[in-house]
Design goal:
The complex is a heterotrimer of chains A (about 425), B (about 300) and C (about 375). Chain A is built from 20 helices and 2 strands. With about 425 residues, chain A is mainly α. In chain A, strand 1 and strand 2 form a beta hairpin. Classes of the chains: A mainly alpha (about 425), B mainly alpha (about 300), C alpha+beta (about 375). The complex binds adenosine-5'-triphosphate and magnesium ion.
């Protein structure tokens, strides 16, 4: 065999160039294959999420609806009531809004900042045609509330399109009349306790799944393959059964006229009048979510347990450990990766859960997702919904990222 | 698992506690709930959600198919005509709410499955090449729809679709469900490809086959089970999805889960149980298919005899 | 062997997994205190099963196992106090080396200071002093092996079982470790039951070897006896190289010798091993190094054969010569490289012979 040596520097350079070129071609080929899906995900998924996140800090709607006011109020330093130009701007904008029949959103936005502002705005808009200069007197005559400095400060806050107020609201804080950031009064605090409740319920669900799932996964991993394959189908069956079907099953079981209550009445544990509240509360949410998320715990546990050789248990016993010590000191630590993966998966899914809490959660069992939906669909406070969503998303991504750092396992490989 | 002869009493008791516990979890959580409760109650003759005396004593009169009939009748122009003559078929096809929902579910799920399978498979072919720059990042991006809470995804799409006119359209829903389904396709196909012996490609080429022929005759048959199970996952995801539908569809695009959702929120009638029973039967069928595919793929790869 | 000296006693032990096939068949075996006993046999012959029954991971289907005179059939493994080295070491991957070593001491609730002292001593014993804080995955195969041995010895069991402990090591490491295990055995005086299917390993390490085949002990003897005086053709063939010839007993002689007829009709004198009967089919066995190339030179050659040289393999210190006789029996001859063997060429004829004392007639 002969080997042609690369002699001249020219040769070596051209060979290197060849190499880079072919490498680049192969990279490009691989990238072209990935590109369609990547673009699809970027434009249809990442971009809209970015857009939504933007809504949590950027809200130009008010400024767009009230251009004259916004232009005028920029001059006003913010103490007392503003000069006549601002009043005139408000009157002009109100008239325009009334003509386009668009006073509603402005009234709603201002009402969030200061209660009672809704009726003030709607009333002023209705009467905007009758207002004449000097606008200050005219408007105060129409409604003395215009004389309140706080309403003007609220208008000034809203007129800036970039705002921290949604995030502040999402953690039960606000900018007070003096312009400093304070907590909402106790009776108006909702979100902090909602976040806490979401974390708490998710934690309980995760724990329940672990307690139920660990022995089952252990059994599956140690049974002969023929039997465990059949049992595995039972684990996967709910996985493949519609979420709504499973939630329905829980409603059927647990509601006041449901199977469990009827059984208890029939066996004289309860009477017809004292049927227990088993669902449409926190208990219902926890029960149903545990059931629904259990497969997500069992599958990673199972796949890790499968790799733990039974010889370690034997070794532990030959070294003098009894069954219990061998299990806790030798077996369980080797399944920690699976425990971590399962818990993370269940927790992440639980934190973002919507359907089940909405159907069986009642008052006390709703989670943060349900509140986001409420603000999107009912209260139309999209900025706040976006802020809540951003916090939820950040929390989940942070959790996922730490997990990936800490362990090297792929929770996605569910198979 | 037989117990060795030497175990002492506590270990024996503990072992039985453990087995009983597992048996209970299986019975109650995996079997009893979906099947043993929903299925028989769907044949209830009464509009109740609990077992009547008659059902418990197996009185045939306590069972009926009325809720299955109701699936067809609900929304029909003339429900009394069901099963008499032929004209009711057209009526049900056009007006029955559940049939309307079923048609939507199938159209949307098939559309989403095709879209996500195509995009996902092609992407997986690229992703499986270690030379791809930024592979981990790209993979993380493509998988992210699984991790982002569905409420965030749905609301984001709601805003985007309202702007670009995809809200309340079939295409919008297909796109949304395809986004949710692609991670499954990407994962299953990359998993199949990672177990794929690359030297088979070289072998094929050395035997004189062109790259296209190698793809058709060597790669495709081996990764097909992976693609199919990814596609099934995508189909299942779309068929079961309700949050995106709530935000992105109005009545015209209502799917079965969406219809069940309103049923559960408004007035619960046992019709939902009848629908649920049909869905359980379908999911058993789907699961069997997936299991058979999995076995076939393992056999092809020589993992089992 | 008198009663007091034996530590383990298998009494007619039988084991079946499926109720049909006996994996261990009527095994009776006494193991002396302090001895190094090796179970040697081909794959699937029941060695591991025997060891597992002794360790307590399998229960005998019938018969008894006595440890220090007590029946232990129903004693849990962790109460037996038997150390064990597993084939792939079974070092707990989530514990450091020191934690692995401390494990058997901690489950015995020894004091902290005592545990630390013993761990240090054990590490020194296997010459891995600086490795206490490492994880098993950070050790080489040979190092893991030593830790596994140290872990099995650290709680000072009287009896240590080793199931092919060197199976995963390369040849050179194996030989080093064989020596070290042997030395530990002599130093500590523990009883070791060792499983291997490598006959060279068994010969170099053991006090006694039990040759297993199909669940039965074929022969239990010291390495020398096993090599020099195999009792069955299986043993003769499994331990060391051998030349086997089918034959039939012709007449028995008084001096433990007999005359047999080879298949070709030639008559040969051989050592009669068991009580043989005239007319019985036997296998004649001659070790290749006992075959002489120059049968006429020395005295004592009692039989000779002629054949065609098929192959000559030169191995430095000796040569292996393959010869095929007229009735198609293939012989292997090992000739020491002492003097030049001229005239040996492939295809040439060769006459060779052996002394009657080196040829054993084994029952088939
Ligand atoms: N748990 C079991 N269930 C059923 N059969 C078994 C089991 N363990 C071993 N066997 C069978 O028992 C026979 C003897 O096995 P054993 O492990 O004792 O052999 P061995 O002599 O150790 O072989 P090797 O040298 O290959 O380790 C084999 O045929 C094996 O298939
Ligand atoms: Mg073995």
């Amino acid at each position: 065999m002969t080997v042609t040596a690369i002699t001249s520097p020219d040769d070596s350079r051209s060979i290197k160039r060849e190499l880079t070129r072919s490498l680049r071609r192969r990279k490009l080929q691989a990238f072209v294959l990935v590109a369609p899906l990547l673009l699809f995900i970027l434009f249809m998924f990442i971009y809209p999420i970015g857009g939504m996140l933007l809504r949590s800090v950027y809200s130009p709607d008010f400024a767009r609806a009230m251009p004259a006011t916004v232009a005028a109020i920029a001059e006003w330093p913010g103490s007392g009531t503003p000069p006549e130009t601002v009043w005139a701007g408000v009157a002009r904008d109100m008239l325009a809004l009334q003509q386009r029949n668009e006073a509603g959103p402005v009234a709603a936005a201002l009402n969030v900042e200061m209660s009672g502002a809704r009726s003030l705005v709607l009333k002023t808009a209705r009467n905007a045609g009758k207002l004449t200069a000097p606008y200050r007197e005219a408007m105060v005559t129409l409604d003395p509330m215009w004389n309140d400095a706080r309403i003007w400060q609220a208008i000034k806050r809203l007129s800036s399109p970039v705002t921290p107020r949604f995030y502040l609201a999402a953690v039960d804080m606000k900018v007070d009349e003096a312009g400093s950031i304070v907590s909402q009064p106790e009776d108006r605090q909702i979100y902090r306790s909602l976040f806490l409740r979401t974390l708490l319920i998710s934690g309980v669900v995760t724990l329940c799944c672990l307690i139920l799932g660990y022995p089952v996964a252990h059994l599956l991993a140690n049974l002969p393959l023929r039997i465990s394959n059949i049992l595995m189908i039972f684990v996967l069956l709910p996985f493949w059964t519609s979420l709504l079907v499973r939630t329905t099953a829980w409603i059927v079981l647990l509601q006041k006229q449901g199977v469990v209550n009827s059984l208890l009445v029939w066996s004289h544990v309860l009477t017809d009048e004292t049927r227990a509240e088993l669902i449409f509360n926190r208990t219902g949410t926890i029960l149903a979510m545990t059931h629904i998320l259990l497969p997500f715990m069992i599958l990673p546990l199972y796949s890790v347990m499968k790799t733990v050789s039974p010889v370690y248990m034997k070794a532990a016993r030959s070294l003098g450990a009894n069954q219990f010590v061998a299990f806790t000191k030798v077996y369980v630590p080797q399944t920690f990766a699976g425990v971590a993966a399962g818990c993370l998966l269940v927790f992440i899914l639980a934190v973002g859960y919507y359907i089940t809490p909405a159907l069986v959660g009642g008052e006390s069992g709703t989670l943060i997702s349900n509140m986001i939906a409420y603000h999107i669909q009912k209260s139309l406070n999209w900025g706040l919904a976006a802020a809540l969503g951003a916090i939820l998303l950040t929390a989940i991504l942070a959790l996922y990222w730490t997990f990936n750092r800490l362990t090297k396992i792929d929770i996605i490989g569910l198979g | 698992m037989a117990l060795p002869a030497y175990v002492d009493r506590w270990e024996r008791i503990w072992h039985w506690v453990y087995l009983t516990f597992c048996a209970l979890v299986f019975l109650f959580l995996f079997l009893l709930l979906p099947v043993l409760v929903v299925v028989p109650l769907s044949f209830n003759a009464e509009p109740y959600f609990s077992f009547t005396e008659g059902m418990l004593t197996l009185d045939p009169a306590a069972y009926s198919l009325r809720w299955y009939r109701d699936i067809l009748q609900n929304g029909m122009a003339d429900p009394t005509q069901l099963f008499s003559g032929w004209s009711w078929i057209g009526d049900a096809w056009a007006n029955s709410q559940w049939i309307h929902a079923a048609k939507n579910s199938i159209v949307i799920a098939i559309g989403a499955t095709i879209l996500s399978t195509l995009l996902g498979t092609v992407a997986a072919l690229g992703l499986s090449q270690s030379i791809l720059p930024g592979r981990r990042l790209i993979m993380a991006l493509l998988i992210s729809p699984m991790i982002v809470p569905i409420i965030v995804t749905s609301t984001s799409l709601y805003f985007l679709f309202s702007e670009i006119g995809l809200a309340n359209t079939y295409l919008g829903l297909i796109v949304a469900h395809a986004i949710l389904g692609t991670p499954f396709v990407v994962i299953t196909v990359t998993a199949t490809l990672s177990g794929f012996d690359r030297s088979l490609i070289r072998a094929g080429q050395s035997l004189g086959a062109s790259p296209l022929v190698v793809f058709q005759r060597v790669i495709m048959p081996l990764i097909l089970p992976g693609i199919l199970s990814g596609a099934l996952f995508a189909f299942g995801t779309s068929f079961d999805e309700v949050v995106a539908v709530i935000f992105l569809a109005d009545y015209d695009q209502r799917t079965i889960p969406r219809q069940m959702w309103s049923g559960l929120r408004e007035q619960i009638s046992p019709t939902i149980l009848a629908v649920a029973t049909i869905l359980v039967a379908m999911s058993i069928l789907l699961l069997t298919v997936v299991e058979l595919l999995r076995r076939r793929s393992e056999r092809l790869r020589g993992l089992t005899a | 062997m008198e009663q007091g000296r034996s530590i383990v006693h298998f009494v007619n032990v039988g084991k079946t997994y499926d109720g049909e096939r006996l994996i261990v068949d009527d095994l009776s075996l006494e193991i002396a205190r302090g001895e190094f006993l090796t179970l040697l046999g081909p794959s699937g012959s029941g060695k591991t099963t025997t060891l597992m029954m002794l360790a307590g991971f399998e229960t005998p289907t019938r018969g008894q196992i006595l440890l220090n005179g007590q029946e232990i059939n129903r004693l849990a493994p962790h109460r037996r106090g038997i150390g064990m080295v597993f084939q792939n070491y079974a070092l707990f991957p989530h514990m450091t080396v020191a934690e692995n070593l401390a494990f058997p001491l901690n489950v015995r609730a020894l004091g902290k200071a005592e545990v630390e002292a013993r761990v240090i001593r054990a590490l020194d014993l296997v010459k891995l002093g600086g490795f206490a804080a490492r994880r098993p995955a950070q050790l080489s195969g040979g190092q893991q092996q030593r830790i596994a041995v140290a872990r099995a010895l650290i709680f000072e069991p009287e009896l240590v079982l080793m199931d092919e402990p060197l199976g995963a090591l390369d040849k050179q490491l194996r030989e080093g470790m064989q020596y070290e295990i042997r030395e530990l055995h002599q130093r500590l005086g523990v009883t070791i039951v060792y499983v291997t299917h490598d006959q060279a390993e068994a010969l170099t390490m053991s006090d006694r070897i039990a040759v297993f085949d199909q669940g039965k002990i074929q022969q239990l003897a010291s390495p020398t006896e096993l090599y020099e005086k195999p009792r069955t053709s299986f043993v003769a063939n499994f331990v060391g190289d051998n030349n086997l010839m089918a034959a039939e007993v012709d007449t028995l002689r008084s001096d433990h010798l007999c005359s047999v007829v080879l298949e070709g009709g030639a008559k040969v004198i051989a050592v009669a091993t068991d009580e043989l009967m005239p007319g019985q089919k036997v296998m004649l066995s001659v070790r290749p190094e006992r075959l002489r190339l120059d049968p006429d030179a020395g005295a004592g050659t009692s039989s000779r054969l002629k054949g065609v040289i098929e192959e000559i393999v030169y191995l430095g210190d000796h040569m292996r010569i393959f010869v095929r006789t007229a009735n198609q029996v293939r012989f292997l001859i090992k000739a020491a490289n002492k003097e030049p063997h001229h005239g040996l060429t492939k295809g040439g004829m060769l006459t060779f012979g052996w002394s009657a004392q080196d040829c054993r007639a084994l029952p088939v």
